[in-house]
Amino acid sequence: MAKIVIRYQNQILGEAQLRPGFNTIGRLPAHPICIENLGISRNHAFIIGDIEEKVFILEDLQSLNGTYVNKKRVHKCLLKSNDVITIGQHALEYLEESRLREAPMPASAPLGHGREPLLEAIESGKSVPLVKETTYFGNSSSDDIHIPGLMIGKQFASIDRKGTVWVINLLVKRFSHIKLNGEEVNSARLKDGDEIEVGGVRFRFLHSG
Fold first, then answer.
1. Cβ pair 85, 46 in contact under 8 A
2. Alpha-carbon distances, residue 6 vs 3, 55, 115, 151, 172 (angstroms)
3. Which residues pair with 7 in a beta bridge?
4. Cα distance between residue 120 and residue 206, in whole Å
5. Nearby residues of 161 by Cβ (< 8 Å), 6 or more positions away
6. Distance between CA 171 and CA 192 in Å, rounded?
7. How many Å apart are CA 135 and CA 154, to the nearest integer?
8. pTM (two decimals)
9. In whole angstroms, how far apart are CA 185 and each of 122, 129, 167?
10. Cβ neighbour number for residue 186 with a 10 Å cutoff
11. What digits encode the pLDDT tens for the residues 2-18?
């Protein structure tokens, strides 16, 4: 298991055990990690956890004052044991009982049984090998997967490799949306056979690993 130790001016204010799925952070009392301070947004950030893979990913929710890991501002970050997350004047120390079972592989390394995962467009049957650390969806010619539409922006969603885990993320939340197996999500771990809808276009995630 993993946990967050909340500190303020070198004093421990409390601890929070991280659970599978979303562990939200913010000023509102409803958050499992609640920090009542005006320097912290009402909905500031979240940590998404996969207990089986022992993976925890921190993501900022476009907060006003930002989220920092080891003094570096981040939007999204794979957490490592003893990382210090700074939110406002509070330090959140991330602690885990053991390291990840598998170390991250280089971008060029094949996954699973000798092949990269694929994203297959359900309507056209076109397949896109996921060979990059981050694959972007958007309506720009520079995006890896083109999604047409006036309301679709550049790099509005992504699929990211985190070690041996693949995660889909909605980066621009104002207009567009993503669905995983029919359920609207902002961020989720992908598994073989998952059906994804990105900006109205449906794909299937295929991974033999």
1. no
2. 10, 20, 42, 40, 29
3. 12, 91
4. 7
5. 104, 107, 130, 132, 133, 134
6. 22
7. 12
8. 0.48
9. 19, 23, 11
10. 17
11. 899 999 887 888 888 88
